[in-house]
Amino acid sequence: MTDIIIIGGGPSGLTAAVYACRSGKSVLLFEKLTYGGQIAKSARVENYPAISEIGGAQFSMNLYNQAKSFGCEFRNEKVEAVFDGDSKKVITSKGEYEAKAVIFALGTEERKSGLSNEDSYIGKGLSYCAFCDGNFFRKRDVMVVGGGNTAVQDALYLSELCGKVYLMHRRSEFRAEKNLVEKIRTKENVEIITDSVLHEIGGAPILKYVKIKDKVSENIREIPVNGLFLAIGQIPGTKQFSDILPLDGYGYVTVGEDCTVKDGIYVCGDCRRKDIRQLTTAVADGTVAATKAAEYVDSTVIGK
């Protein structure tokens, strides 16, 4: 039996692995995709204390290697169910495992636009990651949809690569940090469009245009673009664990700063309901969740 199983290999899960291993516990971490989570897709990380700048992929690899060096065991397996009991049973796509404590570091996934033909354009002009796919659109015209930090950062990045960048937001004001908004407004090749939504995307076999609808005038405007980058929010990866995790109406886990659902069950990272979701808050959660889990494992030994 493993002391602590961690589900999710993003910054919070990897940080939890570091702290759990350093507490002397056996740790097994499951990740269904790639290690590093959303931050691995970022070209630059500039807001992490003591590191002026680092690539997201490099940051993720450093954290992964650190956890591995302390003894964490990694498995690329999708966790399908978790059962709570005296011990925790974790069912994956490849087997069954037992642990004394489980930490959920489930992260989030990209929210889609809802257009009926959206999926048919994925990889054919439509992307959810500007830093991953931006190079494919050098000197071409693209559109970024969204109003938060990610959308504005995507537009800033693409402005250095592409011919023209349209940044469209459904509201009149951006939710992004003020300094980012001020910076994007200085870019001569960026056109900012507000109070508008996607109406249609088209072209065959690859994306050639988008049609947008002005929410005030209801006018439809067609814009020729080669690339469309959606940055309209995230969905927590918690739905399949609703039987064991308390979720709010948006699917986020409703636990406090102690990251504790109950003894032996912990949650950390972006899937937790909180006001601020940043790299620093993710690793902070991982620290707390691992510390609480280790304390619980110690208590079960003492109890015996």
Keywords:
304 residues, alpha/beta, FAD/NAD(P)-binding domain, eight-stranded mixed beta sheet, five-stranded parallel beta sheet, elongated
Topology, element by element:
Blueprint: E1 2-7, H1 11-22, E2 27-30, H2 56-69, E3 73-75, E4 79-83, E5 88-92, E6 96-104, E7 108-110, E8 126-127, H3 130-133, E9 142-145, H4 149-159, E10 165-168, H5 178-184, E11 190-193, E12 196-202, E13 209-214, E14 220-224, E15 227-230, E16 234-236, E17 260-262, E18 265-267, H6 279-303
Parallel strand pairs: 1-2, 1-6, 2-3, 6-18, 8-15, 9-10, 9-15, 10-11
Antiparallel strand pairs: 4-5, 5-6, 7-16, 12-13, 13-14, 17-18
Helix pairs in contact: 1-2, 1-6, 4-5
Give a written overview of the molecule.
The protein is an alpha/beta fold. The chain folds into two domains: 2-108 and 234-303, 3-Layer(bba) Sandwich (FAD/NAD(P)-binding domain), CATH 3.50.50; 112-230, FAD/NAD(P)-binding domain, CATH 3.50.50. 24% of the residues lie in helices and 26% in strands. It has six helices and 18 strands. The strands form four sheets. Strands 1, 2, 3, 4, 5, 6, 17 and 18 form an eight-stranded mixed sheet that branches. The chain has a five-stranded parallel sheet with strand order 8-15-9-10-11, with helices on one face. It has a three-stranded antiparallel sheet with strand order 12-13-14, with no helix packed on it. Strand 5 and strand 6 (96-104) form a beta hairpin. The longest helix has 25 residues, at 279-303. The chain is elongated. The two termini are 16 Å apart. The model has no long low-confidence stretch (mean pLDDT 94).
